[in-house]
Specification:
Blueprint: E1 2-3, H1 8-16, E2 22-26, E3 37-41, H2 52-59, E4 67-70, H3 78-85, E5 89-90, H4 95-101, H5 104-113, E6 121-122, H6 128-131, E7 135-136, E8 140-141, E9 143-147, E10 156-158, E11 168-172, E12 177-185, E13 190-200, E14 212-217, H7 223-244, E15 248-256, E16 262-268, H8 284-292, E17 310-317, E18 322-323, H9 328-332, E19 344-345, E20 350-358, H10 361-378
Parallel strand pairs: 1-2, 1-4, 2-3, 4-5
Antiparallel strand pairs: 6-11, 7-8, 9-10, 9-11, 12-13, 12-15, 13-14, 14-17, 15-16, 17-20, 18-19
Length: 387
């Protein structure tokens, strides 16, 4: 059983690993799920949001005694993960590990103890520490206001001096590239899958501010800085994984500064959407399961395809209220997370995912923008009418 806000990527991996009896519970119920997968969308099947209650209802009576794998959307719900794990074999981080990994205070303390750079962080009642300087001329905001239990850039805003609410923090703004490292955590060490730059607030994908819009790999920077970043990121992943007891698919978001400095921002203790950019001969799903069984890395290796090109994925967000056209050709054209014909989108809703590749970063992003333009051109915008 797979449970995630969007389960298509994990379902693809599970099918590729040879599993045939798969139930995938998510919010969207995308059209391009593998045909052998029983996909239960809380919205389509139950008419409910992706809430704890809806997820438990969708999972009731299914995959008893089977394997449970979770993805994005559950890392902030340790109690739900614990409940779903009853009567199933949990292949992922435990509820206890999730609580530690997603708590900024715990992560900050860990990084301080291990001499890993982490941004200065303030909590409700400590706002005076940020009030003196809110903006730096030429550099923008000095502090970011964040909701702790959020993801994908949601709940991240420039801080303007207001009081924090419960469940919010302030973090010092760090100039640089938002980057990430993806890995599988084994008992003895981690298996690095790859590194990406996160595409945030990309206007041609319908994004703004800090909204996550996709990823590009490899990290587009000069060779010297890239090599230093890869070494630091791998070292930090090893240390954090060991201290937290991470297992299986994991990712860590970081900031790569212009001077080559690397700051850890947060841990994503589950499968991440960026992982499908790392094309491989290896069976990643089986490696994930092996790691969650407590196996050691041993001779397991990640064998990426040697292409020498940039690869990018982008989530296309609706710019206005619109409808999906006939989307069967979308699947044939290589788009993923494909909606059903006639689906209705409100501004900001994810429509589908597009991909691109090219020898150079600029060309890769240009091709991604053109793919997004094609999607926008095909969406059906309802007539206002009546006047």
């Amino acid at each position: 059983m797979i449970v995630a806000f969007s389960s298509r990527g994990l379902a693809d991996l599970a099918c590729g690993s040879g599993f045939r009896r798969i139930t995938a519970v998510d919010a969207f119920g995308d059209r391009d799920h593998p045909p052998s997968v029983e996909n239960i969308s809380t919205r389509r099947r139950l008419g409910l949001p992706f809430s704890d209650e809806a997820i438990l209802t969708a999972c009731e009576g299914r995959a008893g005694g089977g394997i449970l794998v979770y993805g994005g959307g559950l890392e902030n719900r340790p109690q739900l993960v614990e409940a779903l794990g009853h009567g199933r074999l949990l292949a992922g981080n435990s509820a206890r590990v999730l609580q530690q990994a997603r708590d900024p205070g715990s992560l900050s303390s860990l990084c301080l103890e291990e001499s890993i750079p982490f941004p200065e962080t303030l909590y409700p009642g400590e706002e005076e520490g940020a009030a003196k300087v809110l903006f730096s001329p030429g550099d923008g905001p000095c502090w970011l206001r964040k909701r702790v239990l959020s993801g994908g850039g949601a709940g991240v805003f420039e801080y303007r001096g207001e009081r924090l609410e419960s469940g919010e923090i302030l973090q010092r703004y760090l100039p640089g590239r938002p980057v990430s490292v993806s890995f599988i955590a084994f008992e003895d060490r981690v298996l690095i899958l790859g590194f990406t730059e996160q595409l945030t607030g990309i206007s041609f994908l319908g994004g703004n501010a800090f909204k996550w819009c996709g990823n590009i790999t490899p990290v587009p920077c000069c060779h010297e800085i890239a090599v230093r970043f890869y070494a630091k990121a791998e070292s930090y992943a090893e240390i954090i994984s060991d201290k937290l007891g991470l297992r299986g698919f994991n990712g860590i978001d970081m900031i790569l500064g212009p001077d080559g400095s690397v700051y850890v921002i947060e841990v994503n203790p589950r499968y991440s959407g960026s992982m499908e950019l790392f094309r491989s001969k290896s069976d990643l799903f089986s490696l994930h399961l092996a790691a969650c069984r407590g196996e050691r890395l041993g001779k397991n290796r990640f064998e990426p395809f040697k292409e020498g090109t940039f690869r990018a994925k982008g989530v296309v967000y609706a710019a206005k209220r619109c409808n999906a056209p006939d989307t069967l050709p979308w699947i044939e054209s290589g788009r993923r997370d494909v909606p059903w014909t006639g689906d209705v989108f409100q501004p900001g809703d994810p429509v589908c995912t597009v991909f691109s590749s090219a020898p150079e970063e600029v060309e890769c992003l240009d091709r991604l923008a053109k793919e997004a333009d094609r999607v926008y051109a095909e969406l059906v915008v309802p007539c206002e009418g009546g006047k």
